[in-house]
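Quiz preparation item.
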């Protein structure tokens, strides 16, 4: 029997549970933002990822991300498909204090939520059947390669690129995939559809914020000072971003908007994600303020460009992930994490350039592949819903259900 550390193993199981909770939290967040005829349609897209992604992760996803190094470091191999060679006594190679099964489960939760993030962009415009095909293909062609290249010892890791918890792997790829999706499916017929439940958005934000501690602090894969640093950096960045967004919007529209405060918090969480375990607390404050301002401006730009990213996935997650990855290249310091790097402020010019090139490349790749993927899927099964279905709402037209009894609407 392997002699695992109970403290580290217990903490990682808790962190895994917290990240799992983020997917229902995302469903509530998006469900509240959606129009009243499309609440269930957007929520099921998050929940179904929990099932399908788990199946994929067991069959080949984990192996392709964290086993081998094929095609010049672009992807893994199938050596651990179906968890071949891994049992309850197998230690995780990079931290033998925890079982590999725990790392398998922890990373699976990241794989579940990443494609679900994209769904907020094309709410009430794509068929459920095409989404299921998209869910499978996007993970294989976009998520798995970047998870391997950054976290699985692949090409970008060898190049020295850092991403503590998913600025590139999760948020940048999902955000620019969302933008590609919006451009492909076009605008909604009813672009003035208001959020159906701001309290539901608040519940979703609370669950996301709570789960994000597992997302970021758990990415240390151990219990130590860096775990604590990542935890507090996460909370501080989210708080500063939320208040920054609130102040900017309040000064411009003359009213303090609750949805703006909540959106700013999520932007801050996304932005600190790649840097959480590599930067100081003071740097987390700067990242939070920058996030609130830059992501607000990105959403304003999206509106001016006429991109119908219904729930601001690109402006919050895409731009947040990019900004955080670049600011990691500025603020990272080995004084916080000796296994990290020194950023631009500490003489690390090469590291900064690598961060910028990596995140730009990831965004371009995710955008191009997602657009091409949707076009290919459309040849097999229709991607866009028909006008009648969109007007009726996808809850009734596709799922045959409604979120609330008609008497309460």
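Solution:
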């Amino acid at each position: 029997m392997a002699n695992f550390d109970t403290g580290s193993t217990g903490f990682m199981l808790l962190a895994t549970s917290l990240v799992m909770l983020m997917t229902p939290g995302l469903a509530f967040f998006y469900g509240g933002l959606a129009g009243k005829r499309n609440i269930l349609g957007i929520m099921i897209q998050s929940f179904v990822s929990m099932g399908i992604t788990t199946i994929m992760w067991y069959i080949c996803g984990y192996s392709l991300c964290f086993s081998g190094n094929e095609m010049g470091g672009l992807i893994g191999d199938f050596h651990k498909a179906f968890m071949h060679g891994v049992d309850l006594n197998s230690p995780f190679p990079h931290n033998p204090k925890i079982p590999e099964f725990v790392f398998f489960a922890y990373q699976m939760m990241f794989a579940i939520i990443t494609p679900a993030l994209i769904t907020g962009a094309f709410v009430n415009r794509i068929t459920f059947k095409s989404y299921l095909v998209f869910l499978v293909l996007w993970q294989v062609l976009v998520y798995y390669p970047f998870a391997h290249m950054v976290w699985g010892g692949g090409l970008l890791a060898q190049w020295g690129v850092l991403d503590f918890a998913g600025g590139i792997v999760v948020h940048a790829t999902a955000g620019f995939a969302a933008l590609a999706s919006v451009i492909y499916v076009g605008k909604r017929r009813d672009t003035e559809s208001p959020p159906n439940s701001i309290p539901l958005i608040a519940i979703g934000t609370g669950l996301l914020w709570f789960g994000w501690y597992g997302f970021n602090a758990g990415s240390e894969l151990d219990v130590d000072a860096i775990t604590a640093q990542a935890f507090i950096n996460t909370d501080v960045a989210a708080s500063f971003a939320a208040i920054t967004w609130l102040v900017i919007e309040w000064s411009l529209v003359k009213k303090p908007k609750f949805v703006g405060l909540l959106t700013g918090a999520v932007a801050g969480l996304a932005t600190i994600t790649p840097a959480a375990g590599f930067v100081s607390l003071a740097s987390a404050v700067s990242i939070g303020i920058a996030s609130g301002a830059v992501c607000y401006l990105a959403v304003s730009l999206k509106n001016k460009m006429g991109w119908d990213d219904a729930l601001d996935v690109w402006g919050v997650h895409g731009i947040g992930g990019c900004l955080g990855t670049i600011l990691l290249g500025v603020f990272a310091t080995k004084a916080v994490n000796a296994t990290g790097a020194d950023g631009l402020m500490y003489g690390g010019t090469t590291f900064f350039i690598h961060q910028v090139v990596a995140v730009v490349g990831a965004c371009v790749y995710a955008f191009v592949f997602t657009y091409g993927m949707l076009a290919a899927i459309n040849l097999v099964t229709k991607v866009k819903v028909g006008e009648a279905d969109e007007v009726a709402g996808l809850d009734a037209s596709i799922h045959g259900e409604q979120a609330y009894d008609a008497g309460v609407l």
